[in-house]
Structure formats: C-alpha cells, structure tokens
Structures
1.
Amino acid sequence: MKRLVLMGAGHAHLIVLQHLRKSRLQGVELIVVTPSRWQYYSGMIPGWIAGHYGIEQCRIEVEPLVTAAGGKLMMGSVVAVMADHNQIRLADGQIMSYDFLSIDVGAKTDLTSLTGYAGQVISIKPLEDFHQQWQQFAASGNLAEKRLVIMGGGAAGVELAMAVAHAGQQAVTGAPHMTLITGSQGLLPDFGQCMRRLTSRQLARYGIDVVELRATGAGQVLSLSDGRSLVADLVMAVTGSVPFSFLSDCGLETDDSGFVLVNARHQSTSHPKVFAAGDVCARTDQALSRSGVHAVRAGPVLAANLMAAMEGGSLAAFKPRTHTLYLIACGDKTATGSYGPFAVAGKWVWALKDRIDRGFVSGFPRRLEK
Ligand SMILES: Cc1cc2nc3c(=O)[nH]c(=O)nc-3n(C[C@H](O)[C@H](O)[C@H](O)COP(=O)(O)OP(=O)(O)OC[C@H]3O[C@@H](n4cnc5c(N)ncnc54)[C@H](O)[C@@H]3O)c2cc1C
C-alpha cells in the first residue's frame, strides 16, 4: 500500500480533501499532519474582529473532512523534511515515511523589522494563535486608551485596521488610537491606483493615521525612516510572509527566499514525489502572488496530480487566471473590490464577499462543537 502524506491543512489541501472525498483513493493510505484542529479561513478574520461573525463561522474543522476522505488525521507540526529519504519528522520526534508528500503549510509572518523591538507584538500568522492573542488584548481594558500600530499596508493589514476601528466604534469603550504603517511602498502596493484611492478614503473615514514610511523596532519604540519614533501598546504585525526555516535544509530545491520551488504542475523541481501549493511554494514558470485565491484554485489540479502521480498517470499544469477578484472588507459591512485595473466600493461589494466567504466555509463537512 502506498502512503500519501498531506503536510498542513491549508487552503489547497482542503480542496484536495474535498476531491478525495468524492473519488476515494484505492490502495493508498492517506495521512494528514496538522498542528491545529481547525483551519482558519483568513478572509473572514477581519469580519470576526469587526463583530460580524463568531469564530466558529471562520474556521473549518479538519477531522470530519479527513475522515470523509478516508484518511487519518495526525495532530502535530512537521519540523523537518528529509526529502532524499522520503521522510518527515514531527515535533514529538516521530519519523514518518511517505511515498508521496504534498506540502501546504503556508508561511510565517516576516518579523525582520521588529527584531530589536521589546514591546508587545502579535503576528497575524499562525491565525490560531492570533485569534487567542487578539481576544486577550481586546479584553485587556479600555481600548480607547490604547495605541495600536498595525504594521503592513497590504490587503490584510488594511482590512484588520478597519475591522478594529469599526469594532471600537461599536463598543462602549471606543476605538484605540490607530496607526497603519505601510512601509516605503505605500498602501496596497499590489493593487491599481483606483483601488488604492477608494480604500484610502475608507481608512480616512475612521481617522486611522496612515504612515507611508518604513519602521523598525528599537527597544520600546518604533523608529520611522524619517527619524520620528512611535510608541505603541500593541503592534500587530501583518508584514508579509517568509518561509518556515526548516524548509531551507530539507533537501528540496527552494528559491532564494527559501520557498519550495515547483513547476506548473506544483511538483517539486528536485523531488518528483513531493508536491507543494499555496504560500509555501514558488513557481519556476511565473510569479504567483501569495493569496488564498491561488491556493484554493490550485487545489483541484493538485488533487488530480497527486492521484495521477500515484497511479503513474500524466500530470496537468495549474493555469492561474490573469486577473483575480480581490475584495477588501472595510469594517462596517462595506467593501472595496478590484479586478485588474477596475475597482468598486459599497455595501453590495461586502454582500458579495460575505456570500463567497460563507459559501466557502459551509461547503465543508461540519461536526457540532464539543
Ligand atoms: C487577515 C488576512 C486576510 C486575508 N484575506 C485574503 C483574501 O480575502 N483573499 C485571498 O486570496 N487571500 C487572503 N489572505 C491571504 C491568505 O490567508 C493566504 O494566502 C492563504 O492562507 C494561504 O493559504 P495556504 O494554504 O498556503 O496556507 P494557510 O492557509 O496558512 O494554511 C497552512 C496550514 O498549515 C498548517 N501548518 C503550518 N505549519 C505546519 C507544520 N510545520 N506542520 C504541519 N502543518 C503546518 C497550519 O496550521 C495551517 O493549517 C489573507 C490573509 C490574512 C492574514
């Protein structure tokens, strides 16, 4: 019997498991290794902070899905991949062999600029830790007296800033004083001008200070690249992604940053029995932005390729669309959206986002909370 190990229950693997649920693998032992009982759906986390969702609406329980796909769930973190030996090692020391391995562990928050910072920081990834830490901070006293700095001017940082501001406006205590530090690239560097303009209007409505400078942590303060410094009660780090360090010496070919290199079929360029999708990988044929949309869309092709690889069939390429619809929640049940150079804003954009997000999460088998 061949063994297929899915490492991480990230967005692409959720889709793989949905496919394996429908077409069960014959003669294959399926094992899913993940450290958390839940896979958090990042797109709804700002809505949870804003008070529109309960946390159980924003996460998918992994075990029912694995069971439905005929697999076995193993709770744990992979700390090493020995690709030359077809093995992985878990944090508890257990070594597991595989015939085929698929990696979808995402990436971690890049905390380089905060290395010298001694104040309180919570990073957005992993989301399961962020969820707990934000809850503790939000319950830790009068928010209106706190200074919150959100570092990161990408879509996630912007959404989180507006979610916190909206939640604060609804609370008796009021919102914290908020600064969004975008870095020298400015607000939403991966988006068109129209989307940037629409979204910055929304930020202005909340009175969020947007600082388009680089910041580095130094002791108890954040030093800005123009020489000023900022003091914060909490820094929320949404500063982009870096790969997990254990991937750098796992035998797999990686790019200069340490992301697993894959071809268009999402197969490792150095080890054909290893596949990777989502934020953990870098494609050799084209640069793909690290987003949930790409991870989810790669899922069906990854599922087909894993099945074909085990049966000796031919593999297909995942062809990402040229433009993708991105929707940014603006806290108060409005949203901005962009598709290529076009951008829109309004309540209907939120309604669309809400429908897509709820639809995604509710598509997975559920079990009642224990
Ligand atoms: C607030 C926020 C909002 C976002 N909104 C959007 C959006 O609207 N649209 C969009 O396209 N993108 C969005 N993104 C980006 C999106 O979250 C990521 O690109 C997406 O999660 C990547 O999916 P993934 O499958 O690569 O990894 P993840 O979703 O990060 O999943 C990785 C999984 O691997 C597990 N894992 C981690 N380490 C290990 C290990 N060592 N061993 C085993 N398992 C492990 C984790 O527990 C997790 O279950 C958002 C991000 C944030 C932070």
2.
Amino acid sequence: MNGKQLERVYCPVCAAKFRFVEGWKQGSTVICPICGQKLRLKRSSDGWVGDRPEKGTEKEIRERVDEYARLHGYVFKDMKEELIQGLFGKNSRFGDFYCPCRMEHVVEYMCPCKPTRGGDVERDGKCYCGLFWKKT
Ligand SMILES: [Zn+2]
C-alpha cells in the first residue's frame, strides 16, 4: 500500500496534480499551490480531484488571482480592474476565465495561464497581460 504522502490531487484549472497533504479528507477546502484556485476535495475512481465550489463566479476569479499573487509574491497595478472585467467577459462568452489578452480559449490559457505559471513573470517582470507583476 502507498502512503497518503504519495497521493496527488488533480486541479481542473491548471490541469496539474499537486501533493495531497496528510489530514485532508473528502470535502476539505484547499488551495491549489500551482494556480491559487480554491478546491473542494472529492475522491473519484481516478484518485483525488478538486471541485470548484464557486465555479464561474466573480468571487472565484478574484480569490484565484489574489491567491496566486500571494503565493508568488506578485503585485497588481492600475489595470487590474480592467483585466478582471476582461476575465468576466471571457467567462460569459466562452464559459471560463480565459486570458483576456489572447484569442485562444483553451485550458492552457485559463488565468493564471500556463506561460505565467511557467515563469513569464520572473523573466519579463510581468505576465502577458500585465495582471501579475514581479515586485520591484
Ligand atoms: Zn491549479
């Protein structure tokens, strides 16, 4: 038998798996350490998955971007509200919070997008949109 420390949780926002922490259980609310999404744990036939308890709501995307910035020590600038409005627009037109500055609506571009999670902010000082900024 594998110990719990080897288990992973699948995050539907960043499509990645992160480490299951001892003490978590069915229904626990946790934060994805990769994208900042708030998840409710559910045991599926494929293992642990996180549900999005506030999927598609303003609360969800605001909490996610704030949490992501907090996790990485990033800051926001004046255009934050405009970009949040852009994310709302994407959600109403395309069904999820895709990057407001890109034309493709694919899982890789769910905010925070894969390039951002891959180090764009560290390299360029900001993400593609200018939502997340490296602290100077
Ligand atoms: Zn995630």
3.
Amino acid sequence: MTTKTAEILEKQRDHLWPNHLLYYTEPLPLDRGDGLYVWDVEGKQYLDFFAGILTTSVGHNNPRVNKRIHEQVDKLLHTSTLYPSENHVELGEKLAEITPGDLDTFYFGTSGTDADETAVIIAKVHTGYQEVVALRHGYSGKSPMGMALTGQASWRVGGPQVIGIHHALTPYCYRCPLKMTYPECGVACAADVEDVIRTSTSGRIAAFLAEPIQGVGGFITPPAEYFAIVAEIVHRYGGLLIIDEVQTGFGRTGDYWFAIERSGIVPDVMTMAKGIANGLPLSATATTPEIAGSMIGAGLTISTFGGNPVSTAAALGTLEALHEEAPPARTAAVGAHLRAGLERLAEKYPLIGDVRGRGLMQGVELVLDRETKEPAPKQVAVLFEATRALGLLIGKGGLYGNCLRIAPPLTATKDHVDEALEKLDVAFAQAQETV
Ligand SMILES: Cc1ncc(COP(=O)(O)O)c(C=O)c1O
C-alpha cells in the first residue's frame, strides 16, 4: 500500500460514516478511467466489469459524453426546475423515442431512489389509493420509502418506516419459493400478487412495483410471461404497474432498450437512473401524458438538482453513444458471448449453481453443493480478492451474499469479455479449492 492509498483510507475512516459499504478486505481507491479500464491510485489497471454498479454505460471518459459535459460546464451549471432549459426538454424528446408505448413524459430527478419515490407518488395521486405491492428480494433505494419497498432485511436500515407496502413472492426459479419447476409451474408465483392484495391490503392498490431483473437481489430473472400475468392482476385491483428499469434500462439486457419490452407489455410508469448519464447524477420517471396530467392541482413539486443542465447534457451524449456504439442488438451479441463463457465455467466448477440474466447483465450464483444449494458467500469473498489481484472488477449481491454480478459498460467487446473470462477462470480455480 502506498502512502496515497493509506492516506485516503485513513481519511475515509476518520470522516466518512462507517456504514459506507466498501468492496474488498483492503478497500480500493480508484483514480482514473478510460473505456473499459480503470486505474487505482497506485497505477494498477483493472478491467471494469461492474461499471460503477451498472452506471458507466458507455465506458469511462466516453468522448461523446465528455464533450457535451465540457461544453455545458462552460455555459451554465445550474437552473433548478423553475426554469425550462434546452437540454432538459431535448432529453425528454430523445427518451420518448426509445421508451415503450406512450411513456412519453418525464420527471427528472437525481437518483434511482428519487425516481422510485416519484413513481409511487404519481401512482397514489392518479389512483387515489395508497397501498403498494413490491417483490421480495427487490431493491428500491435508500430513502425510508425506498427501504420499505426493498425486499431484503439487510438493506432496511432503521427498520420499516413506511406503512402500506406489502411484498409478494419473487419469481426466483433457482430457489422457487413454491418449490416448483418452470415451465410446469405455469408461473404460479405470479398469483401470489393477487393473494397479497386480497389478504394484506384494503383490496385496492396504488401500484405494484418491480424490477424486470432484480439487480441487488442477485440478477434474479423472472420468466418472460411473469409480468403480463401480474399486469392483469394489478390493473384489476385498480393499481398502476411501475417497472423499475434503474439497472436494466438503456439496452443493458440486450435486444430492447428496456427489459420489460421482452414481456410484450407497456408499464404505466417506468423509472430509470444509473446508465442514463454515464455516471452523472440523473434519474427519470416516465409515464403517459394522461397519468402525468393527474399531477395538475395535486400540489407543488420542485427538484433543485433534477434535470440539471450538466447531467442532462451527459445523458444526451450517453444516448448518442448508445445509439452509435452500443445499441441493444450489439449488447445481445456480446452478452451471448459472455453467457456462453460463464456456462463453460459452470461445467468446470461445481461451485457454480446457476448462471442467469440477459445481455450484459449476467449473474452467477455460488453454492457449496448443487443438490442442497447451500449458499457459498465465503467463496464469493475468495473470488473477489482473487479477481482484484488479477485486475478485474465485478460486483456481488443476493440475499445470501452468494451471487456475482457481471455487468461491464455496454461498449465492451468480445475481446474484453474473453479477457474477463480468463481472469474468472483463474479466480474460480482458487475459490473452488476452498470448498
Ligand atoms: C433497481 C434499483 N432501483 C433503485 C435503486 C436506487 O438507486 P440510487 O442508488 O441511485 O438511489 C437502485 C440502486 O442500486 C436499484 O438497483
């Protein structure tokens, strides 16, 4: 460790709250990035296959994004939502070109938490109902309502703080909560949404909120037909379907701009953040002009930083880069290459219980025994230290802390994928020995 790393870690300990979750036994201060690579303060290079939690969507220092940012920084830094600005409205126009159906109006905020909060508020205003159903294993953010919507105890710091939120079974096929097998199950878990509404709510709901692939939950990937079944139930009980595309949006899952499109349904409200601006703080809540119209007369709303000119400039650059460098069809192809490589590793290492996900959002669940499926979080820790030493950054998650989350910038090439797979192979060999 150099003096520089030691200094940063000491200041972190002295001045930042101790609840900041830091990866690795010795936390890793990053210094600069370029494309698919980042360097730590000691000059060591890493291939970035987590993209700052699926956020650096078009690679570090992407010239299309940075040019827009530089131009805007020299022009005007801040307006607040009290004044219309060109970037703000242009971003709405450009997003409307890729959002499904008539999800053509937006409220811009600063984080995924903000976007999900905004979505629930509009659902309550529009329907006149208060209760919300979310999914177990889901993640919705760090505000009191975000934590209440979240379906994992460890992320609910301070205890449940918002009433009227209920959780249905999650479509987690590898660990089916109903102990059934897909497709013979007929996606029976979807019916639990109706059971929850009928048993735990007042019978009418404002919304059902879920991620198309549960990110923090460990890339839990529901069967494609799940959301069509749930949409019918939710609408029958008066609610809006809110789909959280914070991790899955902007082509991350391949083939489509938004993951929910694969289910053939259009949600009533959709939230996005992370990859929208390649790392600048920005989020968006999308809905139809009709639903957005319910906010007229409902009360006053401002967002000081929402739709900030620099963040929206970055988002315009990011969209341009996505169209030019990393459209969904390309992500599907590079993602298939990654998936095939992970499946080859699964043939080699019994530690791998499940490989799942779509596009460049691939999860690997580690188990001590494929029969009992006993989670292997200690082996994830071994794998983490090994990949770090080999110069590869990946993510982790899951209720049991035993899932790898592999999600590079969407500009990754098949060569980058091969480089990552080689490093993972070496790291898995080390982790497998510890079982
Ligand atoms: C699906 C999902 N929704 C919401 C959030 C909250 O986003 P933020 O951390 O930007 O508040 C996250 C963050 O990881 C997320 O994964």
4.
Amino acid sequence: MKTKKSGPIARFGARYGAVVKEKVRAVEIKQRQKQKCPFCKKLSTKRLAKGLWLCRACKKKFASHSYYI
Ligand SMILES: [Zn+2]
C-alpha cells in the first residue's frame, strides 16, 4: 500500500502532530547523511545501527550518539 506523502516521516500518517513529525524528520535526515569522522575528519561516516558508526575512509568502527556523531 502506498501513501501519497513521501519522505522519512510518511510512515506516521496523520498521527502524532505536525511539530513532532517535523522534529523527527530533521533528525532522521541528519542521521542518514554521511557525517564527519572524528578521526580523519572526512565526511565518510555512516550509521550502521543505533550508536554504531563506520568510517569508510579510515575503516574505523566506533560508538557514538544514536542519531548523529
Ligand atoms: Zn575516518
């Protein structure tokens, strides 16, 4: 089943309110983006799981915040 809304918050439908969804959307977009590695300072770090990050440039896997570094 497809919904007409798109993006990471579409799964919430009409529930939970617009303000809450806007906050969730901002966090989710941020967590999907590649982030700066604290070791080599390159934008090549991806989130593997909650709080687990992997840098492709220096091959380091490390724990950090759940949704961002
Ligand atoms: Zn790195």
